[in-house]
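User: Hey, my collaborator sent me this sequence without any context and asked if I could get a structure. I don't really work with proteins. Can you help?
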Amino acid sequence: MTRTLSIPIPGAGSVSGLAIDPAGASAVLALAHGAGAGMGHPFMQAMAEGLGHRGIATLRFQFPYMEAQKKRPDHRAVLERTWQAAITAASDLARQRPLFLGGKSMGGRIASHVAATPAGAGIAGLVFFGFPLHPAGRPDTTRALHLAAVTAPMLFIQGTRDALADRPLTREVTAALGPRVTLHIIDDGDHSFAVRKRSGRTTSEAWTEALDTAAVWMHRTAESPQKNPSRVSFEHAGASNTQEGMMPKKGTPKRTTAKTSPAKSSPKTGTSRATTPKRSAPQAGAKAAKAPATTARTGAKKVARPTLIDLNKATEGQLAKLSSIGSDRAKKIVAYRKSHGDFTRIEDLTRVGGFGRRLKDDLKNSLKV
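Assistant: No problem. I've predicted the 3D structure and written it out in structure-token form, which is a compact way to encode the shape of the chain:
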């Protein structure tokens, strides 16, 4: 399943590479290692193999200093030339499939520099497994200045305990880059997404989250026109599901409005019945259609909507009133929102301390996002 190859680097000899191209893979990711470990590191191997199981082929490669078993990374010019050669090799592997660039830490950062040049033209997107925004303990955004020149979609997967990516600065940088950027947060993850025992899950589970996020994002990005990047910004903007859900409404005939949300469509449904009384549907069916419309209007106001509290807008006091949450959990939810941003789904409550899967299921009838 894994194939070894040699990648020639102009003026720097050649480096070795590892390609995984499972049957049915719909896209290819050229994946570079970080500063301190090569392409065979357990993290790199887990990402490559995991993506293969999710329909993404990968090409890993060494930088010259790592190939020579040296500790000090090459100058950036050499690193970029290596990336350019890797793009050529990955393009041969990809053939007509979308090609993404990405990497762990330094590998991803250098990929972004190349993507900001003509050598990166035509790539489908960038995937950062822990973008090193600044040196440890020295928060700064200088390393992100060139990202404004990158026109391809970008996915940032960052841990909340990443010493090389201050959370407020990371959010500031990604927000400034606009809708072509998606930011996904690994709760309690460090620079390699390792989590502590007290987080309630294992590092393997955190890596699975990173893999699922990267694979879904690449599949969606490859299928979505770049002119509409908000469709793939499902974590950063939280708008993808809304946009895609609204798309069918543009071409929906008036007669089919009853198939949409009853609370919104009932007035239109009434108009449709009044203007099209000679439809071929049985009379019993027509009567049955009227009753739910009335129930929907009253139920939406008196029962359904008041019982659903917006998880992202509710105050601590409103959340505390729910018997399944209480004061302590309400504080944790508000604190989580401040540090991680809005919830994208109710299931994300399992990332907040004190919420097990059973409790999360109970709250589905009380909360919305």
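In plain terms: Residues 22 and 53 are 8 Å apart (CA to CA). You can pass these tokens on to your collaborator as they are.
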